[in-house]
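Dear colleague,

Following up on Tuesday's group meeting, I ran the structure prediction for the three-component complex that the binding team flagged. I've pasted the input sequences exactly as they went in, so you can double-check that nothing got truncated or mislabelled along the way. The structure tokens for the whole assembly follow below. Feel free to forward this to whoever is handling the docking comparison.

Inputs:
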Amino acid sequence: MSAAKGKPMLKARGVTRKFGGLVAVSNVDFEIPRGSISAIIGPNGAGKTTFFNVIAGIYAPTSGTIELDGKPLISPPTGAGREPILLLVPTIPFIGLAIYFLIAIGGDTGLVEGVASVSVALLGFVCALLLNIVRPAWYNRVIKRIGVTRPARPNDMVEAGLARTFQNIRLYKSLTTLENILIGMHVHMRSTFLGALFKSRQVREEEAAAEQRARELLAFVDLSGMENELAKNLPYGKQRLLEIARALASRPKLLLLDEPAAGMNPKETEEMTALIRRIRDELGITILLIEHDMRVVMGISDHITVLDHGEKIAEGLPKAIRTNPKVIEAYLGRGAAAGH
Amino acid sequence: MVTSSATTGTAQRLAAGLRLPIGIVAFLALSLAVLGIDQFVNALTLGAIYALVALGYTMVYGIIELINFAHGDVFMVGSFIALFISSSLLGNDGSITDLPLLAGSVLILFALTIGIMALVGALIERLAYRPLRRAPKLAPLITAIGVSFILQNIIQFFFGPTIVSVPQLVPIEWSIQVAGARVPLLNLFVIATSVLLMFALQLFISRTRTGRAMRTTSMDRDASSLMGVDINRTIMITFLIGSGLAGAAGVVHGLYYGNTTFSLGFQSGLKAFTAAVLGGIGNTAGAALGGFLIAFVEVGASAFGYGRWGGAIVFSLLVIFLVFRPTGLLGSHTGDRA
Amino acid sequence: MSRIGEAIGAPFAPVRTFFRRHRSLGIFVGVLLISIALPLITRVPPFDGIQSTNAWVNAFTTAAIYAMLAMGLNVVIGFAGLLDLGYAAFFALGGYTYAFVASPFTGVHLPFWPMLLAGGVVGAIFGVLLGAPTLRLRGDYLAIVTLGFGEIVPITLMNADKFTDGVNGIGGIDKPNIPGILQFTLTNPWPMYGLVIMLFALIMIMIYRLEDSRLGRTWDAIREDELAAESSGVNTVIAKLQAFAVGASIAGIVGVVNAAKITIVTPDQFRFAVSISALAAVVLGGMGNTIGVATGAFIIYLFQSILLKQLNTLVENFNIPVLNQIDFLEFQYVLYGIVLVLMMLKRPQGIFPAHRRMREFGPLKSAKRGSK
């Protein structure tokens, strides 16, 4: 799809994230090769999930940048103090217009003219507000000129081709499995507000196509026939599958899986491993996972990164990681490393 | 995770620590200069009342993350209970000049009102909020609004929709001279009572076992439950104290203004809540600070002839703070993202 | 109950499938049938003894206005899960917008029909103005901000007397008319009844279409789990803003109609109690269920304006010593409070639960067990 076949899918440079005085992630450089299954491992509290959340756009990094598929999307926010200017400057022409109205009408300002001018100014302000909320790409480029950068938010990352699952499954519990997946398709649906009101043919066709694709996705993760089941009534293992299907619904280039095999029995774990492979092989999606189960990690990863105390201590092929003394030390403590 | 090197300079830390007290002193000096001593004392008095009410909001929010919409009305009911006790039970219809009798009456008034309102608050918690503790978040908010409406209309039913006068037990003629201006003792009494109650609350929270239980519960309910804290009891006590303080505020309001009305709780409630947000919701010291700030803003507005817009100004402050500094002046432990 | 319904409805199965496929048409026909049936019922005892048919029709018109308000609020609360406690403010803004451009107060007389849309636009603008800064915050902060907004708008309308004539309000507002065909008058309630019923059907159809669209699903997602929604690519701020704006613009439109119906707007008409009554209708009818909410609004309105009034006359006629001192109409406000508290405690899904809400709150028993 992309011309740059050899380029990494995700590139993180010097990513640091602090919480108050705590440094959860410290100066991590990180790359995910295109089409690979990569893993981040590390002891509890190593900063894996924080790093994940920075990539997914949930936490802005304190410093560092992240590129997805060659596009720079995440960098620390700057110029927050200038945000009020962003609201006021676009309003000024409208205020000017309002003042012009008042002057043009003459000295004797009537009731109606007064209210009309105030309304015009208000309208301008609302437009400025909306611009700052909708944040179209051109607007982001313009405000960058005055030194305001805003890191991509989770929904922007999804639009750019990233999808994720959560460690503690976060499905829409009271919705059906089908509805869960339809929501996952959100970014690729084009129906507008007015389209929905007038139920245009385009909207109806899009809805039908989306439902068709949702069924296919359910079949892909082996949940066929459960379309109308409520998400919360699914057994635990199937909830994990549904969450993955929901993530796939946004047609990601990169899929982040946060402990996909947590709490699963050996048979389920095996099926999950097979599914992850199929996602990469059949759908061509690059995968990054956090996992505690070493058999899973060693079994499917092409590439492993080890975090400890927020810092990257090792990376490489599974074989190399397994015997890396630093990694063993991080997991088992200093004494154990010496003993081996 | 690694703790960052804490090598902030001592001077820098000192400056950060002093910023708030210096700010407060500067603010007070400025207000005094702008408002003059009369209005300044008025603002302090009003601030004391707001602070007492704001404490209830902030304590309840701190512990169960619920905006207790009914709290302003608990304050209002308190003012009516005080009216009832003062005029019907004690038979007062004006000021009392006999000092021992005055002291006794005021003491009885405070004790009874605080006691009754504490029970009312705890009852509301038991009946309307506790059953919904695990329900979706909207549910207790909606019941709180409902309770607020019920309280207002019960009072309106018994006392009518108009402004009702309350006996001002402390004679308003009693006053002292400060820098050439006459300061009524009543104001000083109100300020002193409120400050005393706030100090008592701080002591209670920091020194007693129950106070510690309240603090741990507000930080992490599940964990403190595992540590053996009786959550239901702790929340109940929070409501007891918060509503008791609102009752005290009700007494003070009646003594100071000499009147009350059924809609008192709605407007003052909104202002007191703003005070809690200003100070950093969940933070008791912040609530007190916020209460005084709001009062200064309001008194300042009316001093410049914008008294009618006081509500609108306070509300704008609320929005501005929520948008630009949701953690308030003193900060709070509740983040704005779950 | 549904089984009995099915048994009765069996011969009408083809009709039902037809209307299931053409739901908008179904709503339209249903509303039309009910709107014809209601005045007919008032001709039958005991209803004919209570008040004249014209007075009944007038009451139904007001009830329908109130029901539209509740349906709009339901978009905000029931769909997106945002608690808006200042809904009456948007209602007021719509009313004052029309009053301002169609009354002797300003001397401007713009026609009614385009202003219907303008009311919606004004509502949406203020919805965005209030929602944009606050929708990022926690939901309960939104509740208090809207509460404050609902309080400030009437105060402002009262204080800015140069522009609004203060407490007196703006009177003599133009009635709508269709030139050469139909002139609306104060004495004939039927044209306004027709207009309100049409608008009611239209708004209901639109709300149902939104609920079923991509946007409606977005609201579901946000209500269920905001972080997950964001991670599914939903721009939650925009989606919430849309819900807020849709709700506010419905209130604005209804405000215009209401102003045209009663021909005067005063700040007092838009007190907090109005927001609460709409909230009570939403909670009573079942959050998220548009038809249920509309029914809830009808029940509350008719209860307070007919039943309580009847109670007054009854007590007066029999001259019962203690009770005749009491004005039962004053109980309407307590009624709202009681509805809110009791429904939330005993039946949070409402009397006509929406499918989705029923799932969320669970059956009654499990909700109770969860409280311990």
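The longest strand of chain B covers residues 175-178.

Cheers,
M.
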